[in-house]
Amino acid sequence: MFDEIKSIMMETLSIPEDQITPEANLEADLGISSLELYELGGRLMEEYDIDIEEDEIHTFITVNDIVEYISSHTK
Fold first, then answer.
1. pLDDT for position 40
2. CATH classification at residue 57
3. Is the pLDDT of residue 75 over 90?
4. Which among 35, 30, 27, 28 has a CA at the least distance from the CA of 14?
5. At a CB cut-off of 8 Å and minimum separation 6, what does 13 contact?
6. Domain encompassing residue 54
7. What are the CA-CA distances from residue 53 to residues 29, 37, 57 (Å)?
8. Per the structure, how many domains does the chain have?
9. DSSP β-bridge partners for residue 25
10. What is the dihedral of CA 75, 24, 34, 51, to 10 degrees?
11. Residue 49: which pLDDT band, with cuts at 50, 70 and 90?
């Protein structure tokens, strides 16, 4: 799951592969803005056919937070 989400982040936000680690902080380490986080959320919803509420998007602090959320909301 991490590798899939890493690929989506690389494609959607043009983040270099070596910067995306499970522990990477989305804002501090990767420089992801609120707008980019919404863009990423939209792509993840499309890719995994799930709904991510606006208030849930703001709970994502690290890449691993996204991985755990997607893992728990997909079959």
1. 97
2. 1.10.1200.10
3. no
4. 30
5. 30, 32, 36, 39, 40
6. 2-73
7. 24, 12, 7
8. 1
9. 62
10. 0
11. very high
